[in-house]
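Hi R.,

Here's the chain you asked about this morning:
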Amino acid sequence: MTFDRVIAVRNRKTIYRDNDRCYKVFNEDYSKADVLNEALNQALVEETGLNIPKVLEVTMTEGKWTIVSEYIKGKTLSQLMKEEPEKKDEYINLLVDLQLDMHSKSAKRLNKLKDKMNSKIEVSDLDATTRYDLHTRLEAMPKHNKVCHGDFCPSNILIAEDGTPYILDWSHATQGNASADVARTYLLFYLDGDFDAAEKYLNLFCMKSNTAKQYVQKWMPIVAASQSVKGNEREREFLLSWVNVVDYE
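And here is the predicted structure, written out as tokens:
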């Protein structure tokens, strides 16, 4: 492989730039179905009109599945928050606006959020009684069909050199209840140790969307349980600590 440079190294995948193309190269043991599903997710979200890098092709690179997308030159919101801490509140505001715009879209061929969460809860390390309770709570939640990112955080928002924001990484995209997506973003801030940003983000989202904070909080244990099946031991321990939290401030 002769690419210009490595952009990022993630779990079981490496992202390269080659001129105006971005190559996400998956490890040899990565599921073919998961790669194709990610490319399909990205293509389906493209059709909503959201600003995202367009899929150009799915191919093989030295025996490894590869998704080729447009390369967008810019900086992530995460980078900008570190470089310009005085503008952090402004960037959190932008994050919320982008998420609200995304939730205004629908893509009815995306997998359903509830189905994905039920499957993950079922294979978690939780005992049968807790899993039953979580499945019951999940089924009682209102059913929506909004585009949900599943990993919506500052590192997945790219601000192009002309100021246009792009949403990256659609591997976890589903259609479902927006508040579940919000709960996931809140927990991601917490996992990153940025508790102040987590609270500012949640308060701002609830204010702008006219959503009761308590409603999003009801999703926290369900989302935490479904996310606990991946990640390192520290993350699993943290997420599982939220599972039995029902009422909190």
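One quick note: The mean pLDDT is 94.

Cheers,
M.
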